[in-house]
Write a structure and sequence with these properties.
The protein is globular. Helix 3 crosses helix 5. The longest helix is centred in the middle third of the chain and has 13 residues. It is an alpha+beta fold. Helices cover about 50% and strands about 15% of the residues. It binds adenosine-5'-diphosphate and magnesium ion.
């Protein structure tokens, strides 16, 4: 199913020079980049992005640390589109927010050795390189939030179309 998802490279991806590698890994999945930007989001935007449900899931401190983290530094928000974009991105990221629990081959598993314990000790948001929307509905909300007036690029990925053609 063709769908769109929202992805954000977090500040640690920029600070560690991993932007090209991560985008390369996402491109390998066959998804198209429909929008991309580089920004320092306002606190308001950061707080809308990491809403009350994050506090319910992980506690108010984690939410505040996340808001601080992305609003104090620079991030790369993106829209990716293609078949099963939401789950493709989530699978490529790794199976957990804790990099220590992510498989080798995944972005978080390969590129971050942070753990929940280490982040808790330092009272920071776990630097795990990448955010990806968790559902198609969340993706559309996040796209509206980050790219309210953008025109989204539409172009072919002949390699991907070729595979679609063969598989019918
Ligand atoms: P994901 O990013 O995999 O969708 P969540 O939406 O549950 O995970 O959490 C958002 C982010 O909150 C995580 O990516 C991570 O950076 C941060 N986080 C989650 N739990 C903790 C924690 N216990 N301590 C610090 N940061 C955390
Ligand atoms: Mg999440």
């Amino acid at each position: 199913m063709t769908e769109r998802t929202f992805v954000m490279l977090k500040p640690d991806a920029l600070h560690r020079g991993k932007v090209g590698e991560i985008i390369g890994q996402l491109e390998e999945t066959g998804l198209q980049i429909a929008a991309i930007d580089i920004r320092s989001p306002s606190k308001e935007l950061a707080r809308e992005h990491y809403g009350p449900e994050i506090a319910e899931r992980h506690g108010e401190d984690v939410r505040e640390n996340l808001v601080e983290y992305i609003s104090e530094f620079t991030v790369i928000p993106m829209v990716l589109q293609g078949r099963n974009a939401v789950s493709k991105v989530r699978d490529t990221m790794g199976e957990s927010f804790d990099p220590m629990e992510c498989s080798p081959g995944s972005i978080r598993g390969d590129l971050s050795s942070y753990s929940t314990d280490a982040a808790t000790e330092e009272a920071i948001a776990i630097p795990n390189l990448i955010h990806g929307a968790e559902s198609a509905e969340a993706a559309e909300n996040e796209i509206d939030l980050w790219f309210p007036e953008s025109e989204f690029a539409a172009y072919e990925r002949p390699d991907f179309d070729y595979i679609n053609d063969i598989l019918g």
